[in-house]
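I would like you to help me understand the sequence and structure tokens below and explain how sequence relates to structure.
___
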Amino acid sequence: MATRRGRQAPPCALLLLLASMFLLQGAPSQAGDTVAAGRPLSGGESLVSKRGKFRLGFFQPDNSSDHWYLGIWYNQISLHTTVWVANREAPVTDPASSQLTISSDGNMVILDHRRSAVWSTNVAGVAPNSTVGVILDSGNLVLADASNTSVVRWQSFDHFGDTWLPGGRLGRNKRTGEVTHLVAWKGYADPAPSVFSLELDPRGSSQYLLNWNGSEQYWSSGNWTGRAFAAVPEMTPTDASPLSKYTFGYVDGEDESYFIYDVTDESVVTRFLVDVTGQIKFLTWVEAAKEWMLFWSEPKKQCDVHAVCGPFGVCTENALPSCSCPRGFREHRPAEWLQNDHTAGCARNTGLACSDQDGHQKKSKNEDKFYPMPNVRLPSNAQSAAAASARDCELACLGNCSCTAYSYSGGCSLWYGDLINLQDTTSNGAGGSSIWIRLAASEFSGTRNTKKLVIGLTIAGFVAAVTVIVLATIFILRCRRMRSLWRVEGSLMAFTYRDLQFVTKNFSEKLGGGAFGSVFKGSLPDATLVAVKKLEGVRQGEKQFRAEVSTIGTIQHVNLIRLLGFCSERMRRLLVYEHMPRGSLDRHLFETSHGVLSWETRYQIALGVARGLDYLHEKCRDCIIHCDIKPENILLDEAFVPKVADFGLAKLMGRDFSRVLTTMRGTVGYLAPEWIAGTAITTKADVFSYGMMLFEIISGRRNVGQRDDGTVDFFPSTAVGLLLDGDAGRAVDGRLGGSADAAEVERACKVACWCVQDAESLRPSMGMVVQVLEGLVDVNAPPIPRSLKVLADPSKYVQFFSGLPST
């Protein structure tokens, strides 16, 4: 108490404080790995397995709640990751007075602060005071005989949570018919069982099934083929695959059938789980990167999970969040949505006027109306109705108070009750059907309200016009005043077009150009050299352009080109960058007139670019996806320090950017598969482009060339082949005469191949790429992506590119 009043604590008090801190920190290790009668586990104590791999104790998944659970988590990784929870449906509120102990009947129990049992192993026929609880290095919690702990009476591996650890058996007891399940958490901070579960087919086949609510199957692994499950070929281990460190086996015995997997390398930390999203995921931990790496997941598309967005929820693939509510609806349980549990779905803002809950119509059925949603995958459980036209179909739905939606496309489909599995297909370009959702009339504006709205909009438009004129006048006056200031230290400068004409001598010295415009050399009054880029095709308004430029202008990193200022007048959009005296990387790689870059310089350039992209993806306030990584967009300063240029232009270009990118000459070879497929992109699109560029840094040549016999030579396929043959050194630019660090060459080739994996989930983050290139993380030889195999075939390569738009 004395220290709280600000007085200095006496030396003895400090010693007592340090001693108590030491005892608290040492408590878990003193508790050992065993709980026994008379030796309960409570409060901040925990048990640790013999070799320190797993820890058992009370934990709190969400600091904002007072729910505490007894769980098992990894003890030797930096991120708290829970693998099993005992009292999933019965949290305790006071861990200090709760405990795990051995009860008088020999069972392991959790007692709350009232000493009431909230969880028990519930094993019958156990003698009193004859058992102990032990946490094993496998992550398995067992109730064993006190005199011989190898005699197990109960184990957590028979009662999985959401996670399946190596050594665990997920299967079916043929004598009792009992099937073990993996059941997902309801939310990332709520261990309670959700509606998503995985089980071995109870009907007797060797396939695993993902179920919704224990009844609706929405994914199957396919039967066991002897090496893998038919629908999961990714799990087939090969010498070049990271899965080579795993063993897999399916056992079909007389008493039971089960699947088991294990790791041959004890340093590998891995887990298999049913995620909150309803997908199964297989992950491994990379400590240097402080993250879990995803090997594969099923189903691959989030929206293929049954009812993942709940009743009336709309799923959108590759969106964050993936679930939303349509017009006229709101999140049914907003708190659960914040935890990524969308299964409660959406609720109406206003109840329907027509309702048959009491067996009769409350009001006129015509008071309900329909809201059209185009480009959707239609919900489940449609019922056909006789209708000669869309109007007849609408009337058929209006005529039944239980009808909530209809669709007409040559035939009439009606939906009754909740809409399940509604998906918006607009973003992935897959097209779709249209559905008309029934809403209360109040969700639509009436004639009177429309007139009021028109009047209001007219007045608002007049006020807005006056405001724009005033602001434009202020802006013009300010720009004129700033012409004499040129630069403001530490901030972006707004130039006028006339200013930049003067700086560049009327754009007389062109440095280069690309899909987004031309670049001209300029000099500010203080002799600072700049590069002025005239953007072409940018159609954003003034406010949007300025906001986005302001965001990019605040980014500063040694490996990112610095934006000094901009100009936005009428339809003119220009950006002012610092000048890079050595120009772009492509000139030094592919043009002999600039000399040959040493291996050391190339490796530092590759590492610098990786660091710059990692900053854009992970360190900025807003994640920025570059979308056009290639040697032409890597600029070099006097000391050959690389700087990523044109970053953020995808954001500036808006929705038109994907069209510009896919038709841009010289960029096709850097496009990730998701660009070609037209699906939404993530930062992993940059990772793919980086990998393709890294191949060119290694070889000093374009990835696509022509052999003497006229056939196509696709270098990445050659490089991967050399890597797998243990001869990666032959992939290096021949002009270096073999002068290259062998370990760095092999490391760079591995990174490049991992980056260009077909599935974006298999590609590393740029942060992990940095770790690998720095030598902090070692990676196995990657599998050969299917795209590299296809492009290695000259005939297929020609077909692939002939299908792209011409430039």
